Each structure stands twice: as C-alpha cells, then as structure tokens.
Amino acid sequence: LLGTIATFLSYSFGGVTDFLYVPFLILAFYRWDRFVTGRRWTRYVGPTCLGLAMAIKQTPWIIFPFLVIAVAYEAWRRFGRRRGLAMAGRYVAVALAAFLVPNLPFVFDSPGPWLRDILVPVEGSLVPAGQGAIGMTLFLHMGGGSLTAYAAMVAFVFVALLVVFVVTYPLLRPMMALTPAVILFFSARSFGSYLVATLPVLLIAVASAEHQPSQALRAIIGPGQQEGIDQEAKPPTFSPRTQHAAIGLALAVLVGLLVFTFSSSSPLRMQIQAVHTTGSLSTVQEIAVLVTNTSGRTLNPKFTAQYDGGAITTFWQVLQGPSTLAPKQVASYLLGATNQPSQLPLSSYFSVVAYTEHPDTVSVSNTTLPSPDHITLSPIAVNEPVPVGRKLVLHATVRNLYDRPIASAGIPVYLGQIIYAQSGTEDSSVAVNGSAPGTSPVVSYTNSSGVATFTVVGTQADSDPVSFQSNLRNGANGYPYGYSQIITVLFTPPRA
Asked: Which of 53, 65, 231, 267 is most buried, by CB atoms within 10 Å?
C-alpha cells in the first residue's frame, strides 16, 4: 500500500535508482534482530540482503555500521561479550560476501577503475544539488565559497550520529533506516529521494523488530539492573550525563560547521543581462551574463543553469568569454545550451550556476523569469469551417503569472499564421486586420481591458486548416514569449 503512493511511483517511473535497493533493504530490516535470536538458515537473509542492497547503490553503506552495532549490542546482551562480538563479525562477513559476489566480475576485469568509480560519491567532484542544506546556497545565496565544508559536515554528522547511537542505545534503534536521510541532508548533493526511499524500510523495521521500551526508557534515565540478564553479559551503558554531553557536543560542533559553511561567500558575482530564445519552442538557448571574480584567486568557472526549484541542466558551452578569471576581473560571457534538453523553459524561473575546482565552490546568479505574462485566445476553438470572405474575430487577452488579465492599453500583441500539412509547413493566405494575405505576424494593441482584437478573413480555401497563435515580444531584447494556445480554422469555398 505504501509503495502505491504517487511519490514512489513517480520516482520509479522517473528512473530514480534508489528504489532498486529498497526491496533488499526491506528484507534486511524485516526482523533484523532474528540474526541473534534465530536458529535456522533464515537468520542469514538479513545480512545477505543488506550486502545486495549495498551492491546496488552507496546509500545503504551508511546504514551498515549502525546495523552492525545494533546486532553486536543485542548479541552481547544475550550471550556475553565474546560470543556477541563473534556473531557481529559473522554478520559483517555475510554482508560483505553478498556485496562482493555481484561485483567480482568487475573487480577481476578492472580492479582500479572499479574501486575508483564506486567511491565517486565519497571523493568525486559531484555537482551540488538537492533539497537539503545545499538549498541554502543554491536558492538563498548563503555560502558557496567552500563545498569542502559540506563534505566536512557529512563526515562529522556521520561520526557524531554513530557516537550518539552507541551511547544512547537502544533509544535510536528504531531510526536506523533514516540515517542516510539525516546524514546526507548536510551533503552538497542531497535529494528528497534519500528520505522517501527509506520510509518503507523504516515502517518494516519498527513493525517487525522486537520492542524493548523498558530498555529505551533506561537509556534516557540512566543505567540500572536489567531483569533476567546476567550482568557479566550486559554490554556497557552510559550515564545520562555522558549521553547529554555527547549530544550537546555534537550539536555545538554542527552549529559551528553550519555557520562556517553558510558564511563562506561565493567567489563569483553573476548578473543575467539578456537571453536568446528559440521563438515558438519557448525555450532559452543562449544567456548573456556578467561575471565578477570577487576572490583573490584565478578561477576557471564551468557554467550550467537551474530552474523549477532546483532542476539542474547539463553544462552549457562558453560561446564568448575568457576561460579563466583573474582576481577582481569582470567579464561578459555568452553561454549556449549544449543540447535541447539543457535548454531552459521560457516560462520558468531560472538562474545561472558556476562551479570551480581547487577550490571547490559554487556561485549562483540572480533569478529571472523571462516571460511572466502570456496570452489566451478566444474563442478557445473554432468548431465549424469558415467560408472564404467571412470575418472571424479573435480576441487576445494579456494575462499575468497568476492568469489574471492585465488591464493595460497599448501592449503590442502579435498573431502568426501557418499551415501544418502532412508533408510539412506551408504558407497560408489569410488576411488579418486588413493586411496583405499571408502576412505573419500581424501586430495589434490592447485596449484598456488588456484585450487585442484580430479580424481574420480567409482568401483561399484549403484542405488543411490554418493554425493561429499569438504571442508577446520582449521590448529590450526582442524575443517572443507568452505564446497562446493554437487555434485551427478550416477555410472552405464561399457559399453561393
């Protein structure tokens, strides 16, 4: 039932690879403590599935040490230190073996590249993006001068959470499945899928594992005598003072890292100056941006763009502009979309993003929306053929971002005409507002209600309908935007 939620389906259909490991992780957490209490071969299902999940993607790697500590604690509590640690070692061995089996062909073929590539998320120069703490930099322009600071935060949060997990055990035991979402929230690459993918796992873990509320309570109020457990077999416990000190120290250091990360300003100041569009395709294919290197180092920026609240395109080409920027240098760049998927929707807010290596930084320009206004044509459709010579009146209403009419006179509105035939596009021969037949586009100006009027008269019958579409035009840069819906009209011979 949980897996049928639209979020899970959309992630899966969209190709998010996290959901390939989720079934294995669910099996790994289903009664995960049976590895300690079970006596049949089924006890090995958990570590085997955990190893297979780790072989699919690196996210389950984060869960691995937490689960091993939990297994060690439960085994130590039941059977004593020596046997408990031995069982934890067996759990590790089975999980690592399951991880290596599907990887062995790649290890034998190219061990160096295999090791390098699986460690890319750890040491690779990844494009910062996502909905975690990095959003403060990408959208609020806080920080960006040190992506290494994000890496330091991830490393610290991982170690700190591991320490807190140990000293407060079993208080955080039910939350082991959420550790990737918590830790990677502070990464320079942090996506909501890290949390969404672990929610089914969390549900299974909480519902199926053995509950120990009394022990969780003792973990909060302090160690005490545990009924029915040999004190020699009891694993070490920590006093409330130690627990509070560990949590307080972790939070203090984390706050310090956050302050340093968000106070490290981006080295590049960027201002979008102009855009060049694809016309009726309604995309941006070139961007002119003014870049200032405010740092004291020579930088080699690489540019891309983000839109729709965080979607990152592929890197754009530098059509004009220097390859390096000296300290305090100001330069104009003309950036071009590398391919059609990297072109930006003309109707979306977007900004230019620049990355540098050595030092690893990210800088974000101002956010712009090239076409906040748009046109709607009425009638919304012409459902009957129109005889040649008969007048047809089309009204074009200028509307704002919220689809409300803009009551302003004198706004130029353009109406274009063309025939989309089976063999390709053809010129049409319709007279608009008394212009010569086939003139396209024809301009008309809005009245005080924000409505422009076009009188359309067919001059030639055709078996293919004529398509009409209106648009606005940017006054400063001259590019068209705000396209209306397309209205098709079939012109027939005049009636007798």
From this structure: 53
